[in-house]
């Protein structure tokens, strides 16, 4: 009797962690928003016309045609290129943080830093406290690490310090993840007094603080506020994450962090396991660019680019949003957060908006807790002032229906 071969079996099921991790709805929306007839207020990509293509080409040329060519194509140190780390520490020091190159770990974008921190600090099932709403891809990273993201109640100035202590005690949280300056998605900035109170509260609750800071350099007006990590009570418990993505180029994938001493070794081990090190050639080119340009001057140019765009969007939203709407008025970053009058549902409005030729992101995706359906995120990053004005008019028309 012929023996028939066993029936083919499907592969084993995916890990629970991956099955539970949502693909970012923003990515899918961004694909739709790329159609030429759509004005996109959805993305948070830096304006392409701000990229210093000749400067970066010269930096890569210098690396690849000079004595560092072979080194740039070789494996390198997990912590990052020493000269680049010095440059990044000097830049971080401008935000009120004492840092030397030794304190810096270079990461593959600041996104990687979030994953390294989650795996260094947390076991599966542990908790990290978050603002609500917060950065969508941080929620994804925590999900993938099987870490619960639990919202901290708060107000327009940020999480409430008493609530931080209470939620930390109730959940046994390991850390709080905060974006104190020009937050994504709201554009809000925590005032200094709230930073000080949160630092004290984190100390009382024995929490690590994760300060994600991609946007503070993109200040368009107003006075700079020192980082949360500069607060005396926060100094020894805060991991500060910054990035070259918003000030130079996200394609370089150069992020960096400064961690309290006790976490430096563990984070370097996590980095080694993740990808050994960040691209050597990208690091050396970034270092050459930083050595031959004044980053602060370059950033002043970015602010001059974004300022009229922010102003155009705020003015047009003020004109076209229905009465009873509110919006943030950010002094920097790339985002404005809109709250429509009670009863509106931003997700229901989105198909009408796309049909009208404008894209935005419904706010519900950014919540770890109960979403507020009236909210939405718009960005002034990539459109021209005229397009932003037209986009806001189309949005207003879509809201009315
Ligand atoms: C709050 C926040 N954190 C981290 C990132 C990731 O940036 P990158 O990995 O390019 O440094 C972003 C990008 O939009 C962001 O908005």
UniProtKB/TrEMBL annotation:
Q: Which domain of life is it from?
A: Bacteria
Describe its partners and assembly state.
Homodimer.
Entry GO MF terms: pyridoxal phosphate binding; transaminase activity
| Gene source species | Solirubrobacter ginsenosidimutans
Similarity annotation: Belongs to the class-I pyridoxal-phosphate-dependent aminotransferase family.
* Name listed for the protein in its UniProt record: PLP-dependent aminotransferase family protein
Chain segments carrying region Disordered: 1-21
Q: Which ranges carry the Aminotransferase class I/classII large domain?
A: 73-395
Q: Which keywords are on file for this protein? A: Aminotransferase, Pyridoxal phosphate, Transferase
Q: Name one Pfam family in it.
A: Aminotran_1_2
Mention one GO biological process in which this protein takes part, according to its record.
Answer: alpha-amino acid metabolic process
Names of required cofactors? pyridoxal 5'-phosphate
Query: What Gene3D superfamilies does the annotation carry?
Result: Aspartate Aminotransferase, domain 1, Type I PLP-dependent aspartate aminotransferase-like (Major domain)
